[in-house]
Design a protein that fits this description.
By secondary structure, the chain is an all-alpha fold. Helices cover 81% and strands 0% of the residues.
Length: 404
Amino acid sequence: MEHALITTIAAAFGLALIFGVIAEKMGVQALVGYLMAGIAISPATPGYAGDMGIAAQLSEIGVMLLMFGVGLHFSINDLLSVKKIAVPGAIFQMLIATVLGAFIATFWGWDLWASVVFGLSLSCASTVVLIKALERENITSSMNGRIAIGWLVVEDLVTVLALVLLPVLSNLHLSNASNEVDSSILFLIGKTLLQVGGFIAMMLVIGKRIMPKILWMIAKTGSRELFTLAVITAAIGIAFGAAELFNVSFALGAFFAGVVLRESELSKRAAKDSLPLQDAFSVLFFVSVGMLFQPSVLFENPLAVLTVLSIIVIGKSIAAIALVLLFRYPLNSALTIAASLAQIGEFSFILAGLGLTLGLIPQLAFSLILAGALISIAINPIIFTLINPIRNWLLANSSKARFL
């Protein structure tokens, strides 16, 4: 198609704006609208179909900028302040969700790798949705808010590690000789971790010293455009260099570019100036994810969709509540954190998308994950409104709850 790039971008942004506004008016995240825009221009739905190849490349940039933003806002101090509950809580909850998802996938007849990737994709909540929910409830700076954010930071770090190891799993999955797998698994994992370790060491030792100085030098020119360009170049350039030199994913490279730039005193300005471009390409990322969705899964596999949604909303919430109460936090904290994490989003899309690309999961798995994300994000505000009624009901009907 002539002008396929322009046509795809125009359709993506135009429909994302329309559906995003409708979603906000309905009281749900604009993210849902962006996904719906992608579904509208998907080859699986009637009418205009966007160019999937172009959308995939644009989404790669979106992934890089999303991960760059996560790294830029990553605070080790915030994590350390709630580490006693956030670290074990996130790991325990992810483990429970992964096991539940893998068990169901195995019951459906999927192989081990597909089941594990599927379960892991259901375990990581959305940073975007969480922050929006906490801001809406005005509890971002509260103890509950800081625990939820720290919890999600740990989930993000675990998911980043999973993104690094997925290509290794793919190599093992595609290997036909079991003896070869047995002899190479430790080598492949060791090689991957060594490459990642080398990249991280270089970024923390060299990048941490050089990048802030370069930013200061450019900032002194007084040009806002050059400063913004430097930030974006750092994000995409480091991500590309990490992939080419260390065989590290674009996502991990962009994440550590953000972590390194955070060390600069200009990090707040870098975050502010790069935010519009991050937002724009994030929209393209969510639209491209929507383009991969098969709406027929809602009608052909309604029980499977309901099962996935139950794991995301109920399974993860029960695990979170149990652990928070085990650490002797109040019932209100347990319910608030559970509500905050009863959804999945961008990291699930990135993880599932990579799994689909590598041939680890079937198209049905991706569609089920996306369906679960769409519905869980849409109902998340409703879940928050249920916190006080559930708390009051428990206090009125359970003597044990009164001591929590």
